[in-house]
Amino acid sequence: MKNDTLEIYVDYLISSFNATTATDLSNVLDGDISHDVVTRMLASSAQTSKDLWLRVKPLVREIEGEDGVLIIDDSILEKPSTDESPLICYHYDHCQGRSVKGINFISALYHNPAVSLPVGVHRVMKPDYETHPKTGKRKRKALFTKNHYCRDLLAQAVKNPLTFRYVLTDTGFASSENMMFIYHELKRQVVMPLKSNRNVALSLDDKKRGHYHKLNTRPMETGMTREIWLEGVDVPLVLAKQVFTNEDNSMGILYLVSSDIDLSYDRITTIYKKRWNVECYHKSLKQNASLGKSPTKTRTTQTHHFFASLYAYIKLEPLKIKTKLNHFALKNKLYIKAVQQAFEALRELQNPAECVT
Description:
Distance between the termini: 39 Å
Structural class: alpha+beta
Helix content: 40-55%
Oligomer: single chain
Radius of gyration: 24 Å
């Protein structure tokens, strides 16, 4: 019954446009499932990354191939009005340049040319406290670093095993330790962006002598590649400088590196474009899978709802292929259908005699 209830709850998350509650689901089903049954399901043992893999594995096996890449990225589901806890607390948001309260989660997203599927996830927990040495203020402290979670997700993907050659991240996960782990331990290649102040050497001899320079102080033409040696990494990397125009018409520079030194400029930039799919995943998870629409109060129910939203996203992916509609178009189609039914119900209430057949 628990699994049946979960399936129904997940479909409800896809279909819903407002706050998602056990009582509302019971009303939608005309009481066929009581709100107590849904509440007990959410309060049962929390689902883990292993449970997520078991759900998504059949779909992954259908679509995985050599063109697949694994994308690691994190996001914050803001919960400003929810009581603070080890799960819902303050995290620094690089996009906003400040700390926000919510759930910080790190995902491993498997992408091939047609489908993007989460194959692992970690929620950043902060059960401990630390005191700032200068200000004396206490703040929550995470059990592990984000890079630790990154390596754990990657190792699990290889163990499963999952077919992919390249790991894509943003600058936040492009540490030397992560690169070494991926290349030496996992036998995979990286395509990652570097911050402009990273120390690089232009030859192995310079690296041995410790002659490093800041990346942005080395002149380099756009559209070309160069072999470099990054501080803390014992293998050569190929560097590509990409110049682009931002939405505000300002110019931006992206320094991309790969451990696959045979890659051309076009190939590096083409592979890295696939990382954008993780942004689409985050957006759809929040807007189409009701991730932030549950008023659950306990860590267990919050975690279970989080898992159900991930499962809802997974269910949307094969529908995307079947209907040739993206998640937002699918959601809009459901919305139009709901409004049509509501419109007809209203007309029946206003003119019951005319609606009798």
